[in-house]
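Marked as duplicate of an earlier ticket. Keeping the data here for the record.
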Amino acid sequence: MKRMIFCICLFVSGALQAQDIAFGRKMLDTLTAPYFWGRGYTNDGMSKAATFLEAQFRSYGLEPIKGKSFLQSFSYPVNTFPGDMALTINGEKLIPGKDFIVAAETKSIHASGKLSHKDSVTYINRNDMFIVRLEDKLTMEVASEVADYSAVVIDKKSLGSVPSSYEVNIDNKFIKDFVAANICGMVKGTEQPDSFIFITAHYDHLGGLGKETYFPGANDNASGVSLLLNLAHYYAQHPQRYSIGFILFAGEEAGLIGSKYYTENPLKPLKKIRFLINTDLAGTGEEGITVVNASEFPNEFAMMNEVNDKEKLLTKINPRGKAANSDHYFFTEKGVPSFFFYTLGGIKAYHDVFDKAQTLPLNEHEDLFRLLINFNRKLMGLN
């Protein structure tokens, strides 16, 4: 594994000097590759991603936020699906990820039988405690517990008739203490090293279903990670008045667990953070971005718009109020001024197997990079 990580680091390092779309594209391709298996809970996906990303921080010249390690470890319960993943409906074999997914809390089931109609989209077998639900889109999630039933969600377009019979073989594995780690680095400030601007993103995703299917997680959130790494390399080469902290969170998909853990166990006093910028879903942008907490921090939102208007970067910056929809949230709750931005327009793939690097445009990667560089200068009282 160490040799594989080293080779991947060499593959990416050649693009670092440009700090442009080429870097973002190579990093996106790397993080969504089968080797990282959806940066999740099977095939050591999240652990492999953490090792790779820690190596990136080291290669740029960042230092740990505290102590000698970049890793802030913690654990939490999670339901995983490393084994059998097979479903046949009405004699037709369905493909995991493309035709069906499992409900995240599903327990193992190996059974066959008939289905009874419950409502227009739900079919059940009470003896096997098996549920089939039909949806227009498959959206996978992560669960921290196991139910007393098994459930699958089928794309309506995958069936030619009403589901009436089934054969199902699904294995779950519940991990009581899944070990993960936030990756925390910094570039020390030249004038006020005890004042911080934090840039954050989550690197975890959904992992896989069985042995053949994984969720690449290109927009969510390899796109945000690639932007953060681009900024980390830039700031390592161009130290600022304030210290710039970079945190890649684990456990976001399981309920913002990594960011919550950090706010409860901060490596630097939270009151020293001048501002936190969280990036998640940063892979499109033809319709601009939305900024969560814009109404909470109107002065900073005005600063961001001033930069955008001057530089003519994004088509629009939309304001949004407070929301618990990404890793900024627990920082805001602890009194840290924070923005979370996400891009708008383009591909709609989300929490599915179609969120792939090949179809993600990254069309505003460079503009977002410039926006944040100049916004941070304003936060530090420059230009």
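See parent ticket for discussion. Confidence is low (pLDDT under 50) at residues 5-18.
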